[in-house]
Amino acid sequence: MFIKNTWYVAAWDKEVTTENLFSRTIIGVPVLMYRKEDGSIVAMEDRCCHRGAPLSVGRREGDCVRCMYHGLKFDAAGQCVEAPAQKRIPIQAKVKTFPVVQRHRWVWVWMGDPAKADPDLIPDTQWLDHPDWRSLDGYIHYDVNYLLICDNLLDFSHLAFVHPTTLGGGDTTYAAVQPKVDRIDNGVRITRWALDVEPPPFAKAVKDWGGKVDRWNIYNFTLPATLLMDSGMAPAGTGAPEGNRQGAIEFRGCQAITPENEDSTHYFFAHPHNFSIDKPEVTKSIHESVVQAFDEDREIITAQKRSLALDPNFKMVPFGMDAALNQFRWVVAKCLEEEGLEAASAQAATADTVKA
Amino acid sequence: MFIKNTWYVAAWDKEVTTENLFSRTIIGVPVLMYRKEDGSIVAMEDRCCHRGAPLSVGRREGDCVRCMYHGLKFDAAGQCVEAPAQKRIPIQAKVKTFPVVQRHRWVWVWMGDPAKADPDLIPDTQWLDHPDWRSLDGYIHYDVNYLLICDNLLDFSHLAFVHPTTLGGGDTTYAAVQPKVDRIDNGVRITRWALDVEPPPFAKAVKDWGGKVDRWNIYNFTLPATLLMDSGMAPAGTGAPEGNRQGAIEFRGCQAITPENEDSTHYFFAHPHNFSIDKPEVTKSIHESVVQAFDEDREIITAQKRSLALDPNFKMVPFGMDAALNQFRWVVAKCLEEEGLEAASAQAATADTVKA
Amino acid sequence: MFIKNTWYVAAWDKEVTTENLFSRTIIGVPVLMYRKEDGSIVAMEDRCCHRGAPLSVGRREGDCVRCMYHGLKFDAAGQCVEAPAQKRIPIQAKVKTFPVVQRHRWVWVWMGDPAKADPDLIPDTQWLDHPDWRSLDGYIHYDVNYLLICDNLLDFSHLAFVHPTTLGGGDTTYAAVQPKVDRIDNGVRITRWALDVEPPPFAKAVKDWGGKVDRWNIYNFTLPATLLMDSGMAPAGTGAPEGNRQGAIEFRGCQAITPENEDSTHYFFAHPHNFSIDKPEVTKSIHESVVQAFDEDREIITAQKRSLALDPNFKMVPFGMDAALNQFRWVVAKCLEEEGLEAASAQAATADTVKA
To answer: Whole-prediction pTM value?
Structure first.
């Protein structure tokens, strides 16, 4: 069960081209994406309305796509415009299309009611293509439900244990910090300052710190599952409670978790930095540390999933560090409930109409 | 759910030998097949009645088979005739056997009520071993429900799209033809004449046509899922509506689709021709084109199956070209319903007897 | 559904070390095992009580184990003793531990009510480390329910058919013997004397017999699924009905079948002998014959499982040789029923208390 009326990241912009047909399953629905000749993107259910063959193994014909099973041709609005063996096309011969927006390198699709698809709701990820910032494109695939990944990202106390040689480091002081958790629109905001800690390995790899650092991770985690983070570190100062930003290196992490199905998930990410932007080797080093760390996450989360699958009755014991993830799960549940109520209400209204 | 009172092709004759034990699952039931010393075929449930071990990993002993788990020996009628550790064999120690007929290279089994197994109901596939015709034996395995393959074979408009380099060719005129569909006993008869079309690649490979052709595909598709086809092509003539057969090459395609389980299927086929019968390379070329085309079918149908599996609520939009497949699906449904009624009625009759 | 109040073999002693964290799933529950610094063994649910991550991918810290997801630390009693991000540990932050006993090379765990875990109930397998006996450690994994393996071990008439070149031999006289079956506490006792039979291949490999032998297999098969056997053979004598033990070679087979899940099983075994104990090559030859034979069993039993899975309605036809296995299955069913009644009764008692 997934939230429908929200923008999901479906692809990096470069994955969708003018020549090819690109398919990715989003919240259980296979979505065909391609660019029209004017460069704008089409997002269409990847399933011919006739016998269900995937359109993505079909053929581009101008801005149209032809199903290569029985030859039906669909325009960019999903309407069937040609059927080899007949003249009159049934009016209901139409494939569903989805609102789609390309913005700052990401392709966002709206799987719910098109009337509600307001592009202004798309979060700002300007750092992905801003001239003052640099990053590389990241994507990994998970065989777990997306909420287990959200849990992971909503509690950074795991950094010292899952990522000792990458994002975390052996200094467990970081884990001992209680982050500040605030409810915001559609999610939570987490503020974590760790003062006078060892710089983590990935930061040591790009700068000689000469001592300890003040480190911050401040991020919004919002529906459906987007993390936008202001993070960085500076030589340890005296400025508690908020720490030092003098001589800092800074990042603007952008991460989007998009459910593929109940048991698998797409993970899009980049970790833009605004220093050494003329040194591709620094950008590469940061990216590789993040990829390695995310592989570490995937390993423990996949192990967790297998362990949970063995006992459907397992009850988790709550700890203080679960505050943010519990709040976010509550936000998700509330949104699902509202969409359910709305659907039920719409259904009731229709029923009334029919009766009346 | 499968039709039971019908003949299914279970094997090519050469697959069943005097030496070995051959096993193939037919409509969900594992069937052991072997030849007695007189060459006649035995078809028996491939499951020892004692503890369920497969008999096909057992041992031939004359016309009998011995289960190599605990040593029970069964005769060709399925009766247990020896048990190592005891003298008296329980009367119910019997493995089910099935009526089986070898005819024109195919081995047909009857999975339903043996009393109804009339060999005269077996369709005529004489071209498989007729001295004037040549073909090679074909078999492929599908991981889809058999009805999706029936659908494919009941609408040849897909030839231009799925088989552009084999059976179809780029000329979509072929797809535009509306075939004639007639209801016949237990199925449908399809007549498709495509006049003045490009000869398809597989036909070009065996003959220089010098121009366009008139092409016909006339076939009966009958329960459970047998396709017997008169097809061919001749240099384009003027003889509409029926086209030209002068200077033709002709085929008598024989295809049998046998469900293995709900989600997998056996596909037996051959494509006999009556020209160049002294040129094995022509027979080989035709066979290889057909095999390549059937691999193309399997690819799109398997993709279709995966796509349909993602959405159990998907509703297909009907097109005119579905006429034949819809009629055949109706014939299947009606037969299943009758068998169900019959079973229910038989049960009721038994109940009456018991009460009386 | 498995019996809970019983001792299961979980490992060979050498598998559980002071350095590592060893995990094995027993009756559906992942169990973490490790040795404390004093050498004693800890058996603990392999699942962190916080978010369910497996502890076995965690870190040893003295006699404790630290979960490497969020850093919770548990002592050998399963109590959480440290949480990086908070001072006060919730009292319910505890991982379940299981009574565990190492005895004669095997590690036994008790998955049920700890109050009932009486080590005196552990069967005697002294031959596994007795100075007068020699054997090698055996373990194989099965992808079938454990009861199918019990069935196999409770009817040795299969030896002549499944193991003609190892434990059985081509002489089917052995299978024709009716063993004596006695009910004992928690199981059955089987006595099988086969007189004047060919020595089986594995025995020929270690001794020149010069003729036929009298052979015995006398074993207890008890809950949950433990086989302890006095077996051997001697040159054929005249001493019916009990046969000859003069000049015999003797074995004390120890086998333990431990369910992993409903569809997979652990199999621990050894085949101690008290002759040629200074000849490691004899011990090795015997062990290899047994391993080969158990691979033969696994092949037929796995084929049986697949065959049974095809037809959930299959009814087995009983034969005389099933006497022992039917009795044992009855013992299992009765024990499961009693545990169910006990659980229901305990629940009722609690309900009464609440009401009162």
So the answer is: 0.92
